[in-house]
Design a protein that fits this description.
6 copies of one chain form a homohexamer.
Chain A lengths: L3 E2 L1 H7 L11 H10 L4 E4 L6 H11 L4 E5 L6 H5 E6 L2 E6 L1 H8 L2 E5 L9 H7 L5 E4 L4 E4 L5 E6 L12 H4 L3 E4 L5 H12 L3 H16 L11 H12 L4 H10 L6 H15 L1
Parallel strand pairs in A: 2-9, 2-10, 3-6, 6-9
Antiparallel strand pairs in A: 4-5, 7-8
Helix pairs in contact in A: 8-9, 8-10, 9-12, 10-11, 11-12
Chain lengths: ~270, ~270, ~270, ~270, ~270, ~270
């Protein structure tokens, strides 16, 4: 079946994913990699953290292992498990173990969502020992120089039960992300959607006014991803207001008053 | 046994299910499908979301895999499991995996009910990678162009513990559904129940006044489905008030005062 | 062993269980069956819902599969499981699957007690598709015309965590049950206990006054079942007050004041 | 090993356990057994419910299967399980199933402590069908005439989460137990401990004054069992105050003031 | 490997562990053993309960099986389990079962911490039947005369969810423990640590003043065990204040003010 | 694969890890080891507890087994498990069991995070018996003289559900840790990062002022580890303010005001 690929193949085959730097983030990522320090990315939904990590992985020529963390993710989901096959148990490495064995970048997206036993694997990997103990197999892996651990979370909607303990946080070099500045965001949207740059510029301007509404009625501002969706539908011939409603209004809120406020801002731009 | 069919056979064998469009929903669904964007449907109980998805799946010629989500639904319920059979473990694809492999539409009804680990499969499938990692088998499936993910929920009775995180919501093109306008609803009820159009019109008028009671005493307004039930029983010869009581009153509330209010509205129309 | 019978044998062998209709309930049940609509019964403890379903199943000549729902009942308890036997796993149908395969009536008593994943099997069975997907076996069963789903609950002691979601409720034709009118209840008690009709009449009169105490001090009024118990013990020669204490007082309350109130009402009738 | 016996052997070998009737409890138990009605016993800790059931089981010549219920007791603990032995799964009947198959008395002590799925086995066994469905084996057992179900609980310390639902309670004939009257209790204590009747009488008098303190500072009054313990230690030569402290004070309370109050009452009798 | 021993070997090989009686505790323990009554010990942390039980077990010549109870300890942890070994399941007795089979003393330390299903094994073992039913193996063990059950808990820090139900408590002969009187505690500390008696006397005096601070700022007073630790370090040559800080201050509290208060009391004695 | 090493090999191969003593901690650790007493370390995140234990293990020539405790860590994670391999179950020792068998130091970092059943293994190991019972294998291991148990926790962010019970705490000799005094911390940072001593001195001065902000807005003060990270990046050529922002600001707080306060303190030193 042609659409099957292995996880590491995925990482190598990709050409350098497009990423437009905003500040010193590329230098900091590269230095952290060179000094074998783990990295923590903070920032809102859809501002480009995942894309940035893909870009850096390709630039550094390392395979990338991405894991979207969630309430039920355990250490075993990261390190691996014995599976029963043909009457025989066989150990299957998880994505973190593969990254350590093969020397790649393991990216744990929204790490605060994961269950607490992931600390058992993060702590020895993030001090000077850089070790990954696999109790089940009895192995103790030393991370090679080209292994790097990257984690991220969104400080905007953490709550008490979901936060990194200081004893875990203080093991990472950290940086904050935000939405890209307008010119950069225009280039991203134009490139991803195929819509003309000037038309994208109008969308990016609109995004700024929609993002200003955050905190009052909106949990999160509109993401770059949604701008790309909107531009894609417009480029496919959908009327602008229809496309904007389906991508910049409905995904952000269920509240009719908020939706109306968003729609008015859109009509003020495109109406 | 003649009443056994496989899941994908189901999808193909059905002729185009009847669906009466109300706005631009068919165009938006089709564009989302063509642009490979995931879709989020919002709307009240029984307003026709499931029917709409069936209709579009048949129109686009794609098999449909529907999953009613619930409190205990996990990622493994969607992706698949190893089952022990004859002393041998065999991998059995879940409905989402089948939709990805076969190029079909996977519809997760009331997705907010599902457990949080479904995000681990939704996130990589809903960004530009369109990947479904199967950690258990070691496969990484790339979704073909004719795969589409559709999810739905009812904004009317979400609560704090049951909502989509912004980081998930902002991955979807979205649209709102409501009950169809009277003429369309009449046609639906007449067609499904076999009752004459004019008698259905009276039922639809009644529905409007019953729906107006929502929020005060009723959690949800009467659904199109219940109107079809009512018309079906009337068409089978049941007295109108008996049929209305069993389909438009008893299923909506256990409260005697509310039931009496509903019954009076019914008698005012049919008494 | 002579007292072992299979579940379906049970359903067929029984002669028509005695049931005394009160209103249009038999007609409504039969029409719902004929129109292939699922049915929801609401009513207090011990008012005869289970007996009514047994009666209708026998009358319609269909096997009956009854399940008492509880806090830990899951979808798999209804649909079936793989069991390991002799080193080989074998699929064993649950009661719902058997009802679908064999064309019978499946009755889920106190359905609100069940766990939430039962909705995954109820939803596709209760819309126009009438499907039962068995993910574990890969089967998708179409319910035959002679399959019917009946569920019940007691609106008297639902609480917030235990109620049917509107999206589930609105899939059912529904009716309310209450205790039978005095003459009918007398006939039931006389027939079941063997006690003379006139002596049963006194018990039924007493029941009316005991039921009037509900809500003040009693969670539930005395059931028809307990009247039958009482009449049975009296018919076996037990003194009336002893029998009434053991069946109409002690099972209803642990509170001494309430017990005394009940006992006084009994003595006023029989003392 | 000589001290191993099978569960049913236990029931048969025992001679009639000593039990001193107080009211009509023996007649009521016997009638419930003869009429095939399930029985509910209510009463405080250590007042003789378990002994009473043993006595009646022996008198009726039926094996007795006693289960102490607790927070984690499930239906499977009562009905049975498949156990893997020698690579082969073998079904092992639980105590309730054995009682149904062999025609015995199953006694569920403190039934309110059990998990809620026990209702799934209690309900069909306690209506006129008297059935025990074993879903795992596919059997449906009809209880023979000499099967009886007895359950008990202590109304003194039920709480909201631990109570029988009315739909379960109203399936039982019920009776209340209390501590035996003084003369009877003396006989019991003398017989069990070997201590002379007159010395037991003093202990029973003391018990009455200790029980009067219940509710103020004591959760439960002193049980007949503890009186037997006390008499046993006195009969073995222990000083009365030491024996009373170890059996009538320390087991009842950890509070020093309460202990002192109890001790003073004891010294007033024996000091 | 020379430091491996079996559990029962442990019990027999030990010479009589040193224990200094304070009151009638040895006589009461022995009488409970002779009369086949279960025993409940109450008392603060580290006051010598475990040592007392070891002493009595050795004196009575019975093997001792000690279990430290905790939140997740279940009945199966006490009775035993089937373990899969070499493709074959084999039953492995738990410590309670071993004590019953071999005729020994089973000591459940801090029994209130255990899960509630332990009552299922405690109840039949603690009434006149003295039975241990092993449902999994189908055995019903009768405890031999030389079996004894001892349980303990600390009344000082019980809370609502963690207490013995009266129906369980009232099955035990009970006694309270406290720290030993000064002369006895001196002898214990001197014997265990090797430090001269007079230097131990100073420590025991100090302990009295530290224990007086309990309840105000300290959850628990200093235990005899910690006095032994302190004397051991002093005897090994550590400066007194260093030893006292590490054993009598740091283990008791994290609060700086409390620590300072303790340290001042220490300096007042030794400074 | 060259970067695989076994757990015990790890412990032996390492040369003496650098550790700069502050007070009597080395003497106390060594005496506790010699006297076979378990040790409890208390102190804030990143102050060097783990490094200290590594240092002492190497100095005493004992293998070190470190376990980062977490919410889901159970006794079995420490003692071992049966694993199914090749159709055969094989016992695999956990890190605690290995330490006992091989005579090493087992270090449970943040022990209060572990589940409560770890007390079942800690208690018998921390009294004079020094035993490790392995119920699953039936072994009872006596700890050899060169086994030592060390545990730690951070008193700064314990909460009610996460604390050591007094009955556990009072089994340990204990000591408090804090950040090292400036000169020592400078040496550590210089040695670990390669940055010149004088430049490190400025960082350590800065740390003192940042730590003074703790309690007001910061959960934890900056750790020595983060100072090392900062010095490492500066030494690699990164601008000082960029390095400080990524290591001394972003890892400590997500709050913009707090970040600004930290940044101002940094600029005051280096700006």
């Amino acid at each position: 079946m042609s659409h099957i690929a292995t996880a590491s193949a995925q990482a190598f085959k990709q050409e350098l994913p497009y990423y437009e730097p905003v500040g010193n983030e590329c230098a900091l990522f590269e230095q952290a990699y060179r000094q074998r320090l783990p990295l923590l990315l903070k920032g809102p939904t859809g501002c480009g953290k995942t894309r940035f990590v893909s870009h850096m992985a390709a630039k550094l020529g390392r395979p990338l292992f991405t894991v979207s963390c969630h309430d039920d993710l355990t250490a075993a989901d990261l390190t691996g498990r014995y599976l029963l096959q043909g009457g025989e148990t066989r150990w299957v490495d998880g994505p973190l173990t593969r990254a350590v064995r093969e020397g790649g970048i393991c990216y744990l997206d929204e790490v605060v969502e994961a269950r607490k036993d992931v600390t058992v694997v993060l702590h020895p990997l993030t001090d000077d020992r850089r070790l990954l103990p696999l109790e089940r197999t009895g192995e103790l892996l030393e991370a090679p120089d080209d292994f790097m651990l990257v984690v991220s979370y969104n400080p905007g909607y953490q709550h008490i039960l979901k936060s990194l303990k200081p004893s875990t946080r203080q093991r990472f070099v950290a940086m904050s992300f935000d939405f890209p500045p307008p010119r950069v965001e225009c280039e991203i949207v134009a490139r991803e959607s195929g819509l003309a740059f000037e038309r994208c510029a109008a969308l990016v301007n609109l995004a700024a006014s929609l993002r200003a509404m955050k905190g009052q009625d909106l949990e999160e501002g509109v993401s770059t991803r949604l701008l790309v969706y909107c531009a894609t539908l417009i480029n496919a011939g959908m009327p602008i207001l229809d496309a904007a409603c389906a991508t910049l209004v409905e995904p952000l809120s269920d509240d009719q008053d908020v939706q109306q406020g968003l729609m008015e801002a859109i009509k003020a731009t495109f109406g």
